[in-house]
Amino acid sequence: MLELRGITKRFPGVLANDNVDLRVEGGELVALLGENGAGKSTLMNILYGLYTADHGEILVDGEPLVLGSPAESIAAGIGMVHQHFMLVPVFSVAENVILGVEPTGTGGWINRRQAARSVREISERYGLEVDPNAIIEDLPVGLQQRVEIIKVLFREARFLVLDEPTAVLTPQEVDELIAIITSLKQTGKGIIFISHKLKEALEIADRIVVMRAGKTVGEVLPADTDENQLAAMMVGRPVELVVHKDKAQPKEPVLEIRDLTVLDDRNTIAVKGVSMTVRAGEIVGIAGVQGNGQSELVEAITGLRTPLAGEILLAGDNVTLASPREIHRRRVAHVPEDRQRSGLVLNFTVAENMILDSYYSPPFSRGVVMDWDAAHDQAEHLVEQYDVRTPSVDVDLSTLSGGNQQKVIAAREFNRDVQLVIASQPTRGIDVGSIEYIHSRIVAERDEGAAVLIVSSELDEVMALSDRVLVIFDGKIVGEFDPKVTTNAEIGLYMLGSGAVHETDGADLARTVE
Amino acid sequence: MTAATVPGEALKVRLTAEEKRARILGVVYFALAVFVLWVFTLGVDPDLDATFKLSLPRDRFADLEWVVNARLVGYVVTAILAGLGALQLTRGFGTRGNLVLGIGLLLFVLSFLSWAAAGKSFSLVGMLTSTVLLSVPVTLGGLTGVMCERVAVINIGIEGQLLSSAFAGTLVGSLFGQWTGLIAGLVTGAILGAVLAVLSIKYQVDQIIAGVFINIFALGLTSFLATRVLGPNPDLNAPGRFTVIEIPLLKDIPVFGNMFFKHNIIVYATLVLVAALQVGLFYTRWGLRSRSVGEHPKAADTVGINVFRTRYTNVILGGMIAGFGGAFLTLGSTGRFEENMTAGVGFIGLAAMIFGRWNPTGVLGAALVFGFARSLQQKLGILGTPIPSEFLAMAPYIVTIIVVAGLVGRARPPAADGQPYIKQ
Ligand SMILES: Nc1ncnc2c1ncn2[C@@H]1O[C@H](COP(=O)(O)OP(=O)(O)OP(=O)(O)O)[C@@H](O)[C@H]1O
Ligand SMILES: [Mg+2]
C-alpha cells in the first residue's frame, strides 16, 4: 500500500500542494482529477522524488520513503510516466529504456542485444509495438509515450503513476492503453491515473480523487457520480460540456491546397497529393491516427516545412514557399501540436511568450526599443481572459503547469485578428473548464469570418467542433464526412484505413455519406 | 508573392539539403582541380623534381626518399580531382562522401608540397612526426572539453588547466622526479577541474566566466612564480624529459615507425586514452549515463541518475586529462616551463572538440589536422616559399573551417550544454 500524508509544497508565489493525503492499494486504480495548476503533477513529482516536499511523509507498505530521490522511489517500486516526456531525444528507444538500470557485463559494458531483446519482450507482452533501435526524436509523440510506458514496465514498478497518459494518444491507442492498465491492475499493481478526460476516469477508476488549488476537495466512487458533477467539483462551478454552435455559413475559400506532397524528416513521402479547401466561416476538422501525415501537412501550410510538390493558396495567393513569418503576417494563427518543442520558449517569461509572435511590431516595439509596459498589459489581459493560473506574468513559462502552458499558446494565437486558424490538438492537457472557453473561442473565430482548420486525434473534439470532417490515412484524405450524420465508429474505421477509399475534392461540400 | 498560378500545376521538385551539399562538393572538387593545374602545375619549372625524404638518418632503413617530377604530380592530382568532381556530380559517393573528401584534400596538399619542394628536398617524415607530437596537447585539451561538455559543463578554462599543470609538472618533477611531476600535473588539473565544477554546478556561476577566471588566474600565478621562483633557481625548471620508448619491429616500418612508435609514454597514453574514451562514451554504462546528463539532465534524474555527482566526476576527470596534457608540455616535450607556454593550445583543443563533434576520435582527427597545419608552417619556413609565412599559418585553418562548417555537415552540441541543473 502507498500512502501520502500531509504533503505540502510551496513554489515562489504558489502553494502548489496544501496538506494533501492520498492512498493507493495494490491492485487499485485511483484517478486523480483537477483543473490546470491544481497541483497534481507536483504531488506526483514529490512521490517520485523529483521534487522535495516542504512537509509530509510517504509510506510504502508502511515503510517511510526517503523523499527527494528518484533512485529511492524507483527502488521502492514506484514508476512514473511524466506529463512531459522524460526521454533523451538523441538516444535510441532501447537506450532510453535501460538508462539507469543498464544490463551490463564487465567494466560496465552495455549489453545492447539484451537491451533490445528486453524491449521487444515487453513490446510483445503488452502490445506496445515500437522499434528498439529507433531514435526518439524521429518518433511521433504517440510512440514516445509507449517508450515511457515500456520504461516503467522494464523497472518492474509496483505502483505506477500515469500523468495524463492519454492526452497525446489516439482513441485506438487509448483503448489499448486502458487494456494494458487494466491488466497491470489485475497483476496487483497500484495505479494513479491523471486525466482531464472525465469519461476515461469514470470508465476505469476504482476511486476518483479531485484536487483544486492544491487541496483534495473530494473523493467519489465512479458509480456514484457523472461527468457533470465531476466537472463542477473540479472547477467549482457548473460546466457546459457540449459545444454550442449555429450552422456554418461558409463563404469564399481561404485556404486551398492542391496535390500537396510533403516529405517527413526521414525523406519519405508523408503527405501524398492532398487537395482540400477551407472556407471562411467554417471549421474543418482533420481526423487521423498520429503519424499519417497530418503533422507534415500542417507544417507545410504554416511554412515550417517546404513541400516537395503541389501548391498552397491563401486567399488566392500562392504561399507554397512562403516563410513562417510571411504566413504569420498574412493573418494565420497556428497552435502547434507539441507545445514544448514549438510555439513556446520555456525559459522565457509568460509575458515574453505572449508576444513571441509580434514583439517586432507596435505596440510592443518602437523602432528597436521594446515597450515592456505594453507587453505586460497585453499579457495580463490575456492571462485574465484565458484563466491562465500563474503567480504573475513575469515567471518563467517552464514553472507553469502543462495545461496552463497550453493556454498561453491558445491565448496568444486566438487573440489576433486572423483569416485562418490552424490548431493542432488545441485543447491537449486542458481542463474541462478551459476547454469550454477555448471551444467557444474557436467557434467565435469562425463566426467572425475566419476559416478554421482543426487537427486532432481526439475524435470527440473533432466531431463536436467541426462543420466538416476530413479523415487522413497514410498521407491521403480518405473520406469526408458531415459530423451531424456520421458516427464516431464509422470515422474510426476510416482512420484505420479500413473504410472504402474514395477520392474527394475538398471543395465539394455536398458529399453524402453512405 | 504573385496571384494564383494555374491550378494543378505541380511545383518543380526541389533539392533536399543533402543534394545541395553534394552539388557544392562537386563544384569544390573542380575548383581545386583548376587551382592545382593553374598554380601548382603550370606554375613550376617542368624540369624540377621534388625530393621527399621518407626516413631519418638513424633509421634502420635510412635514405628512403621519393623523387618525383613536380609538374607530373600536379597533372596527376588535377586529373584525379577532376575525376572525383565528375563522379560526385553524376552519381555521388553516398556514405563514403567524407572519406573521399579527405582523400581529395590530401592530394591537394600533396601537390602543394611538391610545388613548394620543387628543386629541393623536403623531410616528409619529419613533418609527419612533428604533426603527431604537436597534436598531442591539442588532443588532450579536446578530450577535456569532451569530458566536460558531454555532461553539459562548458570548460573554457582548459588553457589555464594545461598551463598550471605544466608548471606543477616542472617544479615537482625537478624536485622529486618525472613520475612525481606527472602526478603533480594530474592533481593540479583535477583541482582546477574541481574549481570549475564547484563554481558552475554548485554556485551556478556563468560557466564561461568561471572558465575565463581559471585562465586568468593560471596565467597570472604561473607567470609570477616562473619569474620569482624558476627564474632565480634554474634547477627547479629542469625536470628532464620522459625517455622515448621505441616499440621493437613496429618502429622500423617506414614513415609510420617514426610517426607512431618512437615516442614517450605520454604520447602512447594519449592514443590509448582516445580509444578508451571513445569506447567508454558509446559502449559503457558510464558513457550512456554521462551523455544522458548532458542531453536531458531531468530525464537522467527521473531514472535515478545523480546528475550532480556525474557532472562533478566528469569535470574533475576532464581536469585530470588537461593535467596530463600540461605535464606533456613540460615533461614530455620541451623539458622546461616558459611563461604562457600553452599559447592558445587549450582553445585550439576546444576547436578540435567542436570539429570532432564531441567525439574522442573526432577530436584526435581534428587535432591531427591542426598539428599538421602547425608542422607544415614550421617546415615550409625552412623550405622558403614565395608565400608569406603568416598566410601559410592561416590557410590550413581557413580550409578546416570551410570544410567542417560547410561540407562535413552540422555539428550538434549536447542539448543541455552550459545550463546548470536546478532541482526543486
Ligand atoms: N517548477 C516550478 N516552479 C514554480 N512553480 C511551479 C513549478 N511547478 C509547478 N508550479 C506551480 O505549481 C502549481 C501546480 O502545478 P502542477 O504542474 O502540479 O499542476 P497540474 O495540476 O499538474 O496542472 P495540469 O493539469 O495543467 O498539468 C501551478 O500553479 C504551477 O504554476
Ligand atoms: Mg500536470
Task: Describe the model.
The complex is a heterodimer of chains A (514) and B (424). With 514 residues, chain A is α/β, with parallel strands linked by helices. Chain A folds into 2 domains: 2-235, Rossmann fold (3-Layer(aba) Sandwich), CATH 3.40.50.300; 240-331 and 417-514, 3-Layer(aba) Sandwich (Rossmann fold), CATH 3.40.50.300. Chain A contains 16 helices and 22 strands. Chain A has helices spanning 40-47, 70-75, 93-98, 112-126, 141-154, 171-186, 198-204, 227-235, 294-301, 324-329, 350-354, 372-385, 402-414, 432-447, 459-465, 488-495, and strands spanning 2-11, 14-24, 29-34, 55-60, 63-64, 78-81, 159-163, 190-194, 207-212, 215-220, 253-263, 269-279, 283-287, 309-314, 317-318, 332-335, 365-366, 369-370, 420-424, 451-456, 468-473, 476-481. In chain A, strands 6-7-8-3-9-10 form a 6-stranded mixed β-sheet, sandwiched between helices. Chain A has a 6-stranded mixed β-sheet with strand order 16-19-20-13-21-22, sandwiched between helices. In chain A, β14 (309-314) and β15 (317-318) form a beta hairpin. The longest helix of chain A has 16 residues, at 171-186. Chain A is globular, with a radius of gyration of 23 Å. By secondary structure, chain B is mainly alpha-helical. Chain B has 2 domains: 2-119; 126-404, ABC transporter involved in vitamin B12 uptake, BtuC. Chain B is 67% helix and 4% strand. Chain B is built from 15 helices and 5 strands. Chain B has helices at residues 17-41, 70-90, 97-116, 124-149, 158-176, 178-202, 207-230, 256-260, 265-283, 285-295, 297-302, 307-334, 345-355, 360-383, 389-407, and strands at residues 49-53, 65-69, 121-123, 244-246, 262-264. In chain B, strands 2-1-3 form a 3-stranded mixed β-sheet. In chain B, α9 packs antiparallel against α14 and α14 packs antiparallel against α15. Chain B is globular, with a radius of gyration of 24 Å. The N and C termini of chain B lie far apart (50 Å). Classes of the chains: A alpha/beta (514), B mainly alpha (424). The interface between A and B is large, with 51 and 35 residues. Bound molecules: adenosine-5'-triphosphate and magnesium ion. Residues 40-41, 83, 163, 401-402 of chain A line the site of magnesium ion (MG).
